[in-house]
Amino acid sequence: QDGLKQCLADFRQQLAWVERLDVTLGPVGGPASQSASNTDEVDPENDFQREMSFYRQAQAAVLEALPRLRKLQVPTRRPDDYFAEMAKSDQQMQKIRQKLKSKQEAMERSEKAKQLRAMRKYGKKVQTEILQKRQKEKKNMLNAVKRYQKGLSDKLDFLDDEHTSSQGNKKGSANQQTKKGPNAKRRYKNQKFGFGGKKKGSKWNTKESFNDVSSFQSKVAHNKGPGKARKGGKKALNKRPGKRARQKMKNRAR
Fold it and tell me: Which residue ranges have biased composition labelled Polar residues (predicted)?
């Protein structure tokens, strides 16, 4: 202890306070100081209480030193045209900015990948549930069929379910077709020419016309009448015979 006091006396300099600017005070009054005074000391293991005591002590020193500096006419505010060089160069700050940007992009990519994995997992879960449901329905239907074949049951509910489901599908498709309706071209033609409607039926057969065969002509029906020859003209009369007919004619001539 005596040696420490001797060293302190050796390097102590008797200078004015404005040259030393040392202030030693306790923490300023506040809730933290009151709680500290209640416990007689600050718990060093409590981070918040310890840092708050440092903050209060620095605040008390500033409140004590500023009035003394103003009395000594020492300026305490930075001038408007004050220029201070950065501690770090622009190149280093650019590297830091790029590093922060790459880190943020990596975090965004990992977040997107996490969301995609979650969506994939959910889709897989839904798909497995649907497959399990289908397998269960199929198993129940096969069991019902087996019971019916063995004579243990006389109900055909599983066939009714299939029939109703198929009818529902047909109704759905029919509704879709009816809702679809004609296209624009068909609608324009309907508007221009009408919707057709029922024909007059002048060419329809009746029982009497079906039984009446008086106007039947066999020559005309079997392509033997003069009208058929006139339709063909000279080409029909002078038609060249086929290859096989010409071969037979040659054999006869020999």
Answer: 165-180, 211-220
Burial track 52-78 (b if 16+ CB lie within 10 A, e otherwise): bbeebbeebbeeebeeeeeeeeeeeee
The more confident residue out of 168 and 137 is 137
Helical packing angle, 31-39 and 47-71, nearest 10°: 120
- Our CA angle for 68, 74, 80, nearest 5°, is 130
Tokens of 194: 């009408």
Model pLDDT, residue 69:
92
217, 225 Cβ separation under 8 angstroms: yes
Local confidence band at 109 (pLDDT 50, 70, 90 cut-offs): very high
Global pTM? 0.29
